[in-house]
Design goal:
The chain has 13 helices and nine strands. By secondary structure, it is of the alpha/beta class. It has two domains: about 190 residues, Alpha-Beta Complex (2-enoyl-CoA Hydratase, Chain A, domain 1), CATH 3.90.226.10; about 40 residues, no CATH class. The strands form two sheets. It has a six-stranded mixed beta sheet, with helices on both faces. The protein has a three-stranded mixed beta sheet with strand order 5-7-8. Helix 1 links the parallel strand 2 and strand 3. It is globular. The termini are far apart. About 35% of the residues are buried.
């Protein structure tokens, strides 16, 4: 797929999806959102793929919606027909590791927030500039950001439009790792390999349980966990090597304590 706005590669159970409009700072054109939606749907369906890494080409993760294209939209109906890549991210049953390699601004920030795990290069920055361009968030930023960093920090970012550095994003709990830019994909791959160490059926089940429980009040989330745990035990079949895996976990626990 030459000249594609999204690059897609599968290797050893990991699909790497790269936003590929580096000259436009990977701004979200209709074509890019369509290609990203298709790539995510392909990864979600592919039984070979167990983990997804999402990153950007060049020196930016994503500069947000392509304002030039957005301004040329003929009417409101045109914008409503745009592919919804955020829905595709939410529907993806595979965990998505966001490897933020540069600025993630507004719609790009929303792309980052829709990932399951975020890591950042040292030059990564995050900003919500919806208020500066006169558009209310429509892809989850006003809800996901406050749940990720707390309502007061979220309000600070959205009501000022100021940038959040990678180091501060780590301090606020938004990203789990900050690494040198040239080590970003290697680190994402290492985390993906750690995820691949889980039993294959557990990755989508754990992701779904955490997401569904997080959307519910705490008490309902606890009941949900208990109910699904019991359902899993009831349908679980003996698995070859399960005892060995259990012993491996016990050994790791003992070594960490010592």
């Amino acid at each position: 797929m030459s000249e594609s706005t999204v690059l897609y590669e599968v290797r050893d159970g990991v699909a790497t999806i790269t936003l590929n409009r580096p000259r436009a700072k990977n701004a979200l054109s209709t074509a890019l959102m369509r290609d990203l939606t298709n790539a995510l749907e392909t990864a979600s369906r592919d039984e070979v793929v167990r983990v997804v890494i999402l990153t950007g080409a060049g020196d930016a993760f994503c500069a947000g919606v392509d304002l030039k294209e957005f301004g040329q939209a003929s009417d409101e109906a045109d914008s409503q027909q745009q592919p919804n890549c955020w829905d595709a991210m939410e529907a993806c049953v595979k965990p998505i590791i966001g490897a933020v390699n540069g600025p993630a601004i507004t719609g790009g920030f929303e792309i980052a927030l829709a990932c399951d795990v975020l890591i950042a290069g040292r030059n990564a920055r995050f900003a919500d500039t919806h208020g500066r361009v006169g558009v209310l968030p429509g892809a989850g930023l006003s809800q996901r950001l406050s749940r990720a960093v707390g309502i007061y920090r979220a309000k600070y970012l959205s009501l000022t439009g100021n940038f959040l550095s990678a180091a501060d994003a780590a301090e606020w709990g938004l990203v789990s790792h900050v690494v040198d830019d040239d080590a970003l994909i290697t680190t994402a791959r290492r985390i993906a390999d750690d995820m691949l160490g889980l039993m294959p059926h557990m990755l989508p089940a754990m992701k779904e349980l955490i997401d569904d429980g997080f959307e519910a009040p705490f008490g309902e989330g606890m009941k949900l966990e208990s109910r699904r745990s019991i359902e899993y035990v009831r349908k679980m079949k003996p698995m070859q090597g399960a005892n060995a895996a259990f012993e491996d976990v016990r050994r790791r626990g003992r070594s960490q304590k010592s």
